[in-house]
Amino acid sequence: MGRLVEPSNFTKKLIERGSRRETGWPRYIFLCLGSIVKRLESCRESCWESCIFCCIIVSNCCIIVSNCCCCVYPAAACQGIFDEFVSHYFKRPEHSTEEKPKHPIDLKKVVPDYGAYNLMDPTLYEAVKEDDIDAFRNTLQRISTEKDILDRTSPSGNSLLHEAASFGSKKIAKDIIDHHPSLLTRRNIIGDTALHVAAKRGKLDVLKVLTVDSGKQTSGNPLEGPSLAYEYNDDMQLLRMQNQVGNTALHEAVIADGLAEVEYLLSKDSETAYYLNEEGVSPFCLAAETGNKDILRRLLELVDGNDKLIGRPRRESPIYAVILQRSLDMLEEIAKTKQVLFHIRDEKGKTPLYFAASKGYLEGVQFLLHYSRQSTLERSTKGDFPIHAACKNGHVNVVNVLLEEQWPDPTELLNKEGQNILHVAAKSGKDVVVKNILRNPKLEKLLNAKDNGGNTAVHLASMNLHPKVVVSLTWDKRIDLKLTNMAGLTALDVLADCGSIPPTTFTERYTVWALFSANTPLTPIGTRILRRRRIPPNQNRIKDMVNLLSLVTILVATVTFAAGLTVPGGINSSESSDHKKDQGMATLVHRGMFQVFIVCDTIGMYCSIIGTFILMWAQLGDYHVAFTAFRCALFFLGIALFATSLAFMAAVYVVVSKVNWLATLGLVMGITFIAFLSTNYIMLIFPLGWPHPVFHYISHYTILVTLRFMGSNVEAPVDHKKKDSQPAKKDEQFEGSVTGPDSV
Question: Does the pTM of the predicted model rise above 0.85?
Fold first, then answer.
């Protein structure tokens, strides 16, 4: 065992100081040192003082390695922890050249939990509220024996520095910072620092106190060591701290319309103008959204260098926020201050004109064309012009304006895929733009143009399942439906390769009908694709459909049979009849609507029975027979339902015919319902996909009416891996031939 090392002068002073106290940390240190010294053997003098604090922290249970000159904690780590502890109890020598380690601030630190046990003194709160520095200092001296006075908070987590910032108590705020600079980064329950609060309340004087000049150091408490304000300001971290919603102090100043506060904060750190909050909004965008021209002007003037805006995300630039807000006044303000913003690009290489065109902001597009006409021919990183963005989003008015201002020959406005504006509109399913192009005789060259893959507009609309666009294109006689792409596929072939076999959605089914009714050819390659991709029939699904249809036909037969025996108005009995020859006859047999009832009820009865018997063929087990039987039974069931509805309407009319308004109302309601039922039934069984001029005419309007009725649900985007790619190769060899509108 080695000799015990004589404690240093510093340790002796520490023990002497603890011996004069009966409670508190110094007393605890003194008691622990007695046991620690007995256990220390040979230890380097340079590590002795650090070992003391390490042993105290673990409650006198620190493990000392025998025959070693150091504790289990590395000397450097012990020294760092010890320095932090000593800075709260002892004054560092002013001539010390020891560099204090920096502790980076978490700009989005989680807000601590503030309990009732840590509430601030009400007297101090009142002194801060009244901005009474003398009362504040007197109260501090009176309660100085209490621990952590300045660390206490209000119920909302506000420290005394928060309250001083809120009430504009400049002197008290400076006094608090001098004695407790760590409160600069203290957050309340919503994550606000004192700087946030001062910016919200518009307290410019307090803002200046909270943000000291770079390179200067605030005076600190002798027991605190050097002020932390220098460190925070040196790294601009205090100005960049964000609250729970992601706002910096500059965000809050812009929201509060504090022009002076905005100017001051920008002069301290202009980079915060690009910081995004949790909603993805920068102070630039906030100024544009609030419509404060003065603040926006100052933001634009005080930002150093225009190159900082180039290539930044769109949400950080004010020009895009102004376009999104559709504020022409703010655009004019930017034109007066910094027209260079009209020429910058975002991270995707898109100009403000491109963005305005994509949003359909017609007035903004016209305004931007006046200042940056050359932007009409500037591509994005994907190779699109602004007119392509307008076509992609269906803004027909913007398309017309850009057509007048752009290159004289529209056929040269191609993106990187070689697609013109008709290609882009058809691919995106924007029928209104497609119709506008079809009506323009100057754009006739675009109708049958091909892109880099040889696809025409019909190809692109078909593979992306846009039936409305397909209907519009196939209705125009100038469209050549026989054109093939580089893979040798027509539009119908492309659909066969991209869609489901058989069609499973309305978009697929209507697209198939539109192409078949327009007599779009199916090449041998397309036939082989159908044969390859055909899915085996689902026997269980057919069985369920047959069972359901059988149940409905039997139900209709039962209802019509019962209605035929219990006719409206009843039957003449032998007791009430004046003439025996009328016994057993219906009392209303001579009424016209009663006769309609009898005829329709009879039709409904027999059609439902026929449908029931036809469905018996579906039980033979053959898929094709079962499907044919199902289609035939569905036809007879539709007639039965139609006839039963007519019978019910006639029966109601005949029994209330003496009340004219009620009879008329029942008749109108019945006719309306029957018309709706008939339309749906005809659309269900009508061969819309037959390649005949008459059926093409009917299919055209039927599909348009149905799509308009069903709205945007039918035009939902379809995601398939082969979109925009070549669906198949010419040399594919498959056997068999499958054609027909329901085979795609």
Answer: no
